[in-house]
Structures are given as structure tokens and as C-alpha cells.
Structures
1.
Amino acid sequence: MDYDNKKECIPDTESQLLKRQLHLGTGAYSLELRSFALPRNFYSPAAYNYVRQTFKDALPHPSTLRKWYSSVDAKPGFTSESLKAVEIKVKEMKSKGKKLICALMMDKMHIKENVVFKEKANLVNACLDHLCDSEVIVKTLTFNGTVSNFSMAKCLRADFTLTNLKPFFKRPGSETIVHIILDPAHMLKLCRYTLGDWKTIFDENLIPIKWKYFEQ
């Protein structure tokens, strides 16, 4: 194959793969190839090795991938590696005439001492700003049903009171609506704990639900 005569009509990623197969290039791997290789090796090393062999070792060796994992900046904050990966995905979707629509999920983690719900709301907004800058459309936010998270939701201008239910909010400076989803597994666990502690609760028709039936 005359690579020089064909390279102008080959996309960059395919061009790099072809050059490596023909042993015409051994430079740094592109971000696109990195984003392709890392998740596939993570989820199935065997499948990744098969693909790598199919492409005649044009993809990074697993030892190279391990070095990349070890060099990721994992300091608190929004890592540049994560944002770059998102941008690559956005670019990929654009090439297919599509938009990248995502769901944002947050879990309990230690950030620093005495982080209050207002600061958590600020972190959510900052995350949404970063994703918006990367042209990602966020439709939902999922979190556990803890008191601090409900307070955070109120700071985001959502409301979970039964008389004024509004399980969504708008990102500041935008008309984009983000819907809030309470993590179903965690909410079921809270119901179980409540029933276990109180022993009897009542449904909307005042019919008792008793813990003793679960014990039996």
C-alpha cells in the first residue's frame, strides 16, 4: 500500500493506526487512541488484547496503559484528563451528527471538613459549567436522599416539599433544566431502616405496614 498517496483521505485516528501497522510511526499516541484503548482494556483485558492483535499491535501495550493510569492527576477538583475524555466523546458524537447527553451522578465522599450544602451546590454548578463548556448536555442529577442533599437541592432552587414539589432546577445563567432523581436503591434502604426502627408505618389510606411481617 502506498501510504503517502492515501494519507490525505484517511481520518487522523485511522491514519495513525495504519502508520503503526506499517511501522511508519512510533510517536506519542493521540488522545483519540488513548480514549479508545483505556476503557476497553479496563473492562475486558482479553478483548482488548484480541483487538490489539487484530491491528497488529498498533494499539498501546497493556504496560503502557498502566503507566498512563499511574500518571493521572488525581488531586481534588475537576481533572483535566476527565474533561479531555469528555471533549473527545463530544467530538466523536459530533462527527456522527449527534449531541452528547449525559446524566450527572454524585455520591458521598470526603472532600474536606465541614463542607456544607451551599458549597455542595456550588460544586454541582461548577461541574455543570465545565460540562457546558465542553458542549455536554446534562439532563439529570442523581444523588442519595440525605438531609444535606435535600438542602443542597434547595440551594439549587429545587424543592422536595409535598406542597410545592419541584424536582428540577435551572443552571445559573441558562434556561437548561436539570431534573433530580433520588437514587432508588438508597431510598428503598431508607424506607427499610425507617420501618425497622418504627416497626409500624401507614400508607396513604392509613393501612398499617408492620415490620413483623418482614421478620416472619
2.
Amino acid sequence: MKLLVDGRQLVLSQDLAIRIGVEEALFIQQLYYRLETRGVEKEGHIWYRQTYQGWAKQCPQWNMRKIKRLVMKLERYQIIISSNKFNRFKTDRSKWYRIDYEKIDQIVQSEVYKQEELFPEQENLSEKNTKSNSYHSNEIANIIDYLNEKAKKNFNNHSKTNIRLIKAILKEGYTVEDCYLVIDEQVRNWTNDPQMNKYLRPITLFRPGNFESYLNDALTRQQDNNLDFEPVILDFDEGECY
């Protein structure tokens, strides 16, 4: 039985994978490759600019939600630093990434192998999450209020069903701005359509399978609108994950 393939192989640091996880180490390796081949120097560091959609094309073994979770975890661990301050337009959904190599050296040289010991600050994450519940409640209320304003509806921002739907979306790594973007997109598409206007409701917009599709449509529209203002950067290696 043939166990190995002749095509491209995934390469990662075993020492790093043992300590932070295989998928996390693989993402770091992909970012490192991009920094080496397409990195841009800004403020004394080498950065690589990419969207979540772009990462998903480069690493097809993961969907966009998985990539968001990986990025958020590596950001919490302070292994990667990300920023959007270099974007030229507010509508630009891309982020700039760099690696904290000193942090990686500390991790690899450590004799500790358990993540909870390497990152003790994460032990208090449940407590932090408890404190942030009220913050998320405010975010959810703002999202429903935004929907009511844009769609001229009157949904209850204290409804358990509405809260559960939006809370699940935020937990997946999507942002309040993503929710606003989906609302704007679907209001634009459906507000004047008598058949579709009734679907401008939380249970339709924020159902996980629907939300990702609506967000992709909205981001595609934004990218199309930005083509007249920002030059397209061709990357012939796009889609490869080493």
C-alpha cells in the first residue's frame, strides 16, 4: 500500500507542533513562507497582507471559520502579531501579519510541553469570558438594533433565540462589523423585494450556514468596488500551502 504522495507536502516544525499543536504550527509555517517570499517591510518589521478568504485558498484543508479560530488563538498566544492599520481603505478586510520570533524561540527552547503551562494566562480565560458576557450582550443588542434600523423592523434584542444565533456567530470568530456588513448587503438585496423582505430577520441572516455565504457575497462586492482605487497584486503562488 502506498502511504505517501508524490505531490507537494506540508512542512512544519515538530518542536513547535508538540507545544502549540500541529495545525497551529502548520499555519505559522505557511505565514513564514509568505513573509519570506511576499513580505513587505513596515515600521522595522516584515509583514504579510492577506484576507481570511485568501488564507482559505492557500490552505484548502481548512475552511474560513477554522482559519479564524487558528489566527485568534495564535494572536492570544502572541506568536503572531496582526494589524489593519496599514490598510489604505476602511472597507479593506485584509490584515497584516508578522511573526514574533522571540516568542517562538522561548516556546521551542522551553522544557514545558503542555499548552496550559506554556500559556498560563489562558487558565483565566473562562473567568475573562464570564466578565465579557455583558460586553457580548451589548454587542448583540447593537447588532439587532442595527438590523431594525436598516431593515425598518422591530426585532426584540432580548429574545433568547436571537441572542443564541448571534452569540454563536461571534463565537466562531466573526466580528460585529461582519454582522453589520451582512445586514447592509441583504438589506440592499431584499428591502425592495416583497418576496424576500420578510427574510430580513435574525433567524435567516445569522444562521451559520447562511451567514458565511452572505458575508462572502458582501466581501466580494467590496472587493469589486475597490478595484478602481487599489491596484491588484497578482500572486501566482496563491493557493499553494507548503
3.
Amino acid sequence: MEKKPEPGSYRFSVSAAPTPADTKLVGATGSSLSVKVMCWLTLVDASIGTLDTERTTKPKLETITFPNKLSRQLEADSQQRLILQFSLKDRQTSKPATVHQAFVRLSNKETGQEVIMVVETPTGAEKVYKFDVDLGAKSSVLNHQSGVYSVSLIVGDAVVANSFVWDIATIQLKLTESPSPAASHTSKQLYYKPKPEITVSYLDRVP
């Protein structure tokens, strides 16, 4: 196709008639035809790292090249944030691209428990994806389970021919412990325990 349309779903109207005219052939007028234009994506400018929750320091980001995995293990605790940045481009045109589905998955290596978080679609002209999660806020979702987690990026779209799951890195998380059920129960018992009796003394009033 000369105009090379952008990836997406299109509907064409097709009309055809025999030349020269032949009464034996009906031809077609305004027939509808659905076409999906696919694309192949490349992932570029990827970096991952951590940042203090208070944002008092600059993020410690390390560059990674798709589809390789970060060679060293990251470390973070409940006072930090996990940061991931990357861009997607159309392999044929090199234009910045976005997808309908982009997620980061954290998987506990020991228990297999997973949490999947959405990577918001970028709004700027450069279309840079920026994932930023407060690990302390996610402690309850991860059942306050410290340990080694794998970090994966999931990218997919109906018009992307090479949807993928990228195993980016591993990270050692030190999460806050969950409140003790026994301590919570004891606290409730003390709250509802009968309080000491209040006595009131009256003084005789002298006329």
C-alpha cells in the first residue's frame, strides 16, 4: 500500500466491475472488507532502579538492553520505590509507539505469589513509559513477604505481532512485617475490659 497506514483495524469499501462490460458478470459495489495492519515493536532506552520514598535523593537507575536481564540483583525495602522507564518504537518506521497493555509483574521466587501492576500509557510527545511504585504501600498486597522477587514486563496489543514478556531483573525486598494477630486481639481485649468504677464525693454545703 502506497500510504502505509498506521497499525490498527481498518474497514475498506470495495467496488469492482468487469472491463469490458459483461452482462454475465454481476461485479460488486460497496462491499465491506476488514483489514488489520500489524506492526513489530522494539523496546529502547530501558532503565531500572530504586528511589527513596521521600524522593530526597536521585533515583539509582541502571541501563538494560532488551531482551537481556540485569546482571546484578537489586535490593530495596519498604522505604523505597521501584522505578522502571522504557520506550517502544515501531520497528519499520522507528516512530514512538504505545500499546493497550503494559504491566509489571513481581513474582516471589520462593512462594510463587505474584502481583501485577499497570504501567500507565505515556501522554508526552516522546511517549516514554514511566513505572513508579511505592514498595511500602504494596507490602500488604505481597502479604508482607520479604524475599527475592523476579521483575517482568508484559507488553501486548491486538495489532502488535511480537507481544512479549521480558524477565528484566531480580530484586531482594525487605518488607515491613504484618501486625501480629495476637497483639491486635490483646489490644481489643484491653479496650473492652471493664474500667474502674467512678465514684463521686459530695461535700455538705454550709448555709
4.
Amino acid sequence: MTIFIRWGAFSDTGVLRLQNEDAVLAREGLFVVADGMGGHNAGEVASAMAIKFLGAAQSSGIADAQQLNSIIKEVNEKIFQAANGQTDQRGMGTTLTALAITPTNKSKSENDSKSVTVANIGDSRTYLLRAGEFRQVSVDHSYVQELVSEGLITRDEARTHARRNIVTRALGIEPTVGVDTWTLPLIAGDRYLLCSDGLVDEVTDIDIETCLKLNSDPQQTANKLVEMANKNGGRDNTTVIVVDVLDKDNKVVSKPVDSTLLKPEVNFSFRKLIISVVVAVVALVTSVVTTSYARSGYFVAYEDETPAARVLIYQGKEFLWFNPTIEADSTLIRSDLNLVL
């Protein structure tokens, strides 16, 4: 039996973020999700570098988990060197989860001539839906995962934990990094999901599983999952790849997706529009109230300290960037008031 791969991929800025620091690569034989981190757009640079170098390495072929491990470690060195070479990129890094279709040297038939190799660094994830059973293949490198592993909190509690976004391992942060890999048989009917934490922070595993089971087309499934994340808050960038393993009767050609070739898009969602309007209204009201307070009241003062100084009438008070202004000029001078007194 000949096996084919079909996939769908989608990456979205989300509801609250203005920039997408995720990067995605989806093409025959290699699927990668990278979630960048670091200020001044450096996260976007790190994730794009990871995608670029992995894509270039795949052109020479990825034989097995060991080679994929070595390639990712080389990518780590390149990102680390770039981060330390430019001040505005210092401290940048990226998570990464990758799925590669690799040869199986020990295979004796066409059915098992290839394997699936999964690699992971950070808290981006790879899931597998096989024979109706849904499970996470990768293991997060994160603070909350350590708490879960120690039995201190549950997986559900980890989703809302205050420190859920702290990763304990990422590409580009240190000169060397450990890469976790898994090798699985390539079986027709399997469905893999690769995603950034923007999905799992907003959508429960149960809802993700349901979506994967109810939607057959991988591209529509990827779109739906991102839509669910945005409807649930969309607080982060969300990237999803759905990979289907099919037999020859279900062969459908999928288009390659490389986020490094895509033009940046600004996500004008309805919620962003509402937030922008609210911010503008608050700023306007604050400005009106501040101006009203600063311009309230009148007082009389001398022009200067000399006996011939004019007596002036001022409006307002010294407040923030406001200063009193002269509203009237009397015919009196300082010495006139002294005589009256």
C-alpha cells in the first residue's frame, strides 16, 4: 500500500497582538512550527531563522532522528551567534516542534518503508490522533510542565497558571541545547497536529480532539482551530499544522507553506477595533477632564517684583504641562495696591 501525506497550515496574529512572531513551514516531508520570543521584533527573527535553516537542511535529506537532532542543534548555534552579534537581537530565541518523514532502514515492505520523526524544544507541541485515541507526543519544556510531572498541579491547572509562559528550553538562548526526539511508524489514518502555545492556552485538549475528529479536510481543520483560539481570547499568536497520513485512495495534493515567504498581514479583527475605540475614547475623556481642571479658576498676580509691575488677572493653574494664561490686564500697578492696603 502506498502512503501519501496531506496537510493544512494556518498562522494568525491573534486578537490582542499586533505582530506575528510565529513561523511555519509545511511541505512534503517536513513540518515545523516555531514560536519566537524576545523584544524589538527579535522573536520574529529567531523563528524565521529556524524555519529557513531547517528548510535548507531538508533539501539534502533528513535520514533519521539523529540527523534531525544534529540539524536543530546547528540551527541553535546560528541563532545564538546572531543574537549575540547584534544588540537589538540579544536574548532572542524560539521554541520549535518539527515532524519529518524519514526512511526506515530496517523496513522489509513498502508499508513500513518510512517513519515519522518528531523533535521538540520549548512549549510548542505535536499531537497524534491514531485509531480514535488522541495524545500529545512531545513533552513541553516549561515551568508548568515540571510542576505537572511532579504531580503538583494538573494539566488543566497548568493552562491557567500565572507562569505558564515560562519555557525552560529554547533555541538560541544558550550555545548548546538538548533536543527531544521520538520516532513513530507511518500509519495510514493517522492525523498529526503541530501548534504553538497560542492554541493550547485558549483551547482545551478535549475541544482540540473534537475538532480533529469532526473535520476531515486538514486545511479547514487548521483554520477552524485558529478560529477557536481567537474566539476564546486570542491573546497570543496561533499557528497550526494538521498532517494527515493517507493511503492511495485518498491522495490529494497539498500546497507548501513557508511563512518566510509570506508578506506580513495586519489582523484587523472586530475585537481589536473595539479595543482601539475604547482606548481612543478613554484618551479623549482624560484629555478633556485634564484640560478642564487645569483651566479652572482665576487669580490676581503682579507682572513682576518691581513697584511699577502691572496687576494681571490669570486663568488656570500649573498642572502637568499646563500653565496659567493672562486673561485681563488691569490699569493698576503694584504701588497702587500698596497704597490701598
